[in-house]
Design brief:
By secondary structure, the protein is of the alpha+beta class. It has 6 helices and 9 strands, in the order H-H-H-E-E-E-H-E-E-E-H-E-E-E-H. Strands 1, 4, 5, 6, 7, 8 and 9 form a 7-stranded mixed β-sheet that branches. It has a two-stranded antiparallel sheet with strand order 2-3. A hairpin with a 5-residue loop joins strand 8 (about 190-210) and strand 9 (about 215-225). The chain is elongated. It starts with a helix and ends with a helix. The relative contact order is 0.10.
Length: about 240
């Protein structure tokens, strides 16, 4: 029984610690890790317990394991989002590792994307802020704006040039480009979903950084697949 408990402990810790290390933090993951630690403690001290303590410990762990299993099964079966035709979709922010979104943030973005495809009339609002270990500075001033209801000018992050892999990837026709914007930081951390864009042109240029230095960027010009409504355009560009 001691060896079985230790094996279960190792498996549980591997299963639940790996998602946590990639940025998935929730109560279910914490419960799984705690259960793994309990199995590990039970395995390490099993031979030092009395027979009665061994029996009750094994029974308690069995019951807790069943509860966790059925709770996970219930969430997986009935916890899926079935809402349709909602007017607003809020995408909660999560950790960004340098320039790369965490697994949790990527899953939220993917879920929002597929929901917007099924519900094109929905407005998506993105929330979040810059973390201590995130490379993208919120204080850098980018000149992202509408040139018309059908054309949007967008600048890449700094220290990127026309030949950078991310620019080349964005320019590919098969790369889906969705526009999320806000008018100013005074509005808070929420962004509004404007629709899908088609890449038209890229121009290498520079901007002035926070310390006055020149930083290379790429100016990109997009055509909105669906023209922005006049009142929305006037709000952002007025």
């Amino acid at each position: 029984m001691q060896i079985i408990s230790l094996i279960i402990a190792v498996l549980l810790l591997i299963i639940f610690i790996f998602p946590i290390s990639t940025g998935v933090h929730n109560l279910g993951m914490a419960a799984g890790v705690l259960l793994g630690l309990c199995f590990g403690a039970e395995g390490l001290f099993y031979n030092k317990m009395s027979f009665t303590a061994q029996r009750y410990t094994v029974f308690a762990l069995f019951v807790v394991s069943l509860i966790l299993f059925f709770a996970c099964a219930y969430v997986m079966k009935f916890g899926k989002n079935t809402a349709t035709n909602q007017k607003t979709l809020i995408v909660l922010g999560c950790r960004v590792k340098g320039d790369v979104p965490s697994l949790a943030l990527q899953k939220r973005a993917d879920a929002a994307y597929f929901y917007l495809l099924k519900n094109p009339g929905c407005v998506a609002i993105l929330s979040g802020g810059q973390g201590k270990d995130e490379n993208i500075s919120e204080s850098t001033k980018y000149d992202d704006r509408f040139a018309s209801p059908t054309i949007f000018n967008w600048q890449t992050r700094s220290r990127v040039n026309i030949d950078s892999p991310e620019v080349v990837a964005i320019e590919q026709p098969e790369t889906l480009k969705l526009l999320f914007i806000k008018k100013s930081d005074a509005e808070g951390s929420e962004f509004y979903f404007m629709g899908e864009m088609l890449h038209k042109q890229s121009i290498g240029t520079t901007i002035t950084g926070n310390k006055g230095e020149k930083l290379s960027i790429v100016q990109m010009f997009y055509e909105m697949k669906t023209p922005v409504e006049a009142k929305i355009y006037d709000y952002f560009e007025g």
